Structure formats: structure tokens, C-alpha cells
Description:
- By secondary structure, this protein is an alpha+beta fold.
- The chain has 4 helices and 5 strands.
- The chain has one domain.
- The protein has helices at residues 2-20, 26-40, 87-90, 147-152; strands at residues 48-52, 62-65, 75-80, 101-115, 120-134.
- It has a 5-stranded mixed β-barrel with strand order 1-2-3-5-4.
- Strand 4 and strand 5 form a beta hairpin.
Amino acid sequence: MKRPIGFLLVSGTLALFLAGCETTPKGIQQARIEMGQKIAAEQPGDYYIGRRYFKPVFKFWGYVRRPGQPWSSAQMVMLNEKQKLAPDRERLSFGSDNNYEYKLYGDFSGDKVYEPASNTVYPEFVLKNYELISTNPPPIFKSQMSGGAQAKTTSATIERPEY
């Protein structure tokens, strides 16, 4: 009699433990695979890929990477809008394009710009033009893939792309 009860107790505890583990849902895993394939197929060229990352407290624009490079290689940038306004500023709808993906034309100036709310210095990207790629691109931040990670994210949290 002791064996079946012990087995049930261990089995129940193990089941509860495993139920609490976070796994990546199949849909998100499939989106990651497709995103990797899409990134690998990007044509090299004189442009960048940008993901708008809007947080009301901060003045940075978002993440910028080279075509064909993973999002984990992207840099957070401060946008120089002297030649071209950012898409949301052009529409006078600040932050309305959060998480949108763009093809960006321009260059890094080589200058660094201080962002006071984060107390961090970021590279300056001089925007010359842009094209909207997607208003609903695949997730690149942990908070977009996990309820637990989303709960830990505050308005002052600056996430890094992971994929």
C-alpha cells in the first residue's frame, strides 16, 4: 500500500512542477522560425531594419539592425529627424506606431546622444526616409512571448530583442 501512495504523491508533485514551467507556445515558435527565414532572405543593401520601441518616459526611437542580421544584434538609437520626421511624429500621433517594423534609409552619424530618463548614451541614427514593413511583425521581446515576462515588465523597463 505504501508504494502506490508514494508513487501518486511523487507523480502529482512532478505534474504540478512541470505545469508551472514556461514553454514557448507552438504558434510563437513557428513565428520565430518564419522570422529567421525572412531575415535570412533579406537582400543586402543601403538600408536598415527598424523596430519602433515606444515608452512614454524615454526619448529613444527604437532598435535598428542591418538586413540579414538577427534582432539580437540591433542597437537602440536616438533618431535625428532634421532631414525626415519619424513616422509617428509626421502624423502627430506620438508612439502610435509602437512595435511597427520599418525599412529605414539613413546612416549612423557616429555621434552619441544622451537620453536623460535612462541615463544612457545611445548612437544617433540620421533618418533620411522610411518604408513601413509591418504593423504586426513577429515578436522579438521576451514580454511578447510570455505572460510571466510581461508581468515583470514596467513602464521603466527597457527590453532587448532576443531573436
